[in-house]
Write a structure and sequence with these properties.
alpha+beta, 131 residues, 5-stranded antiparallel β-sheet, Nuclear Transport Factor 2, Chain: A, globular
C-alpha cells in the first residue's frame, strides 16, 4: 500500500509540473527578451492586462531598475498555476550580482499563456554570487 501512495504522489507531482510548463515557458520568453535588452517585445507579447496597468516606458524603466537587462541566471522557486492563470516566483541573479526575488503573474487566454505582471516579490535584495 505504501508504494501505491508514493506512486500517486509522484504522478500528481509530475502532473503539476507538466501543467505549469507552458506558463513557465511564457515567463522564460519574457525574461529572455528583457535580459537581451528587448523590453518592448516582452511588453508587446504580454497580456492586455500588462499594457493596461503600465506604459511601455514605465515597464522598461522598472526592468532596468531591477537589473534584469543582462541578468545572468534565474531559478524558479515557486509555481502556483491552475488552468486559468498563476503566479511564478524566481530568484534572478541581476546584472549587478544581486539576487532578486521576482514574481511573474501569468494568465491563459485561448490556450496561450501570457505574462500579466512582472515585479519584485519583496522589496529587499540579497547579495548573490556571480556565476
Amino acid at each position: 500500500m505504501g508504494s501505491g501512495i508514493g506512486f500517486v504522489f509522484a504522478l500528481v507531482f509530475y502532473a503539476l509540473i507538466w501543467m505549469s510548463a507552458d506558463a513557465v515557458s511564457a515567463a522564460e520568453m519574457a525574461l529572455g527578451h528583457i535580459s537581451r535588452g528587448n523590453a518592448p517585445t516582452a511588453y508587446a507579447e504580454g497580456a492586455p492586462e500588462l499594457r493596461e496597468r503600465r506604459s511601455l516606458e514605465d515597464f522598461a524603466a522598472n526592468m532596468r531598475e531591477l537589473g534584469l537587462t543582462g541578468h545572468s541566471s534565474r531559478t524558479w522557486t515557486t509555481r502556483t498555476v491552475d488552468y486559468r492563470g498563476g503566479r511564478l516566483v524566481a530568484d534572478v541573479l541581476n546584472n549587478r550580482g544581486e539576487t532578486v526575488s521576482l514574481t511573474v503573474t501569468v494568465i491563459r487566454r485561448d490556450d496561450t499563456w501570457k505574462v500579466a505582471a512582472i515585479g519584485p516579490t519583496q522589496p529587499s535584495r540579497r547579495k548573490g554570487r556571480r556565476r
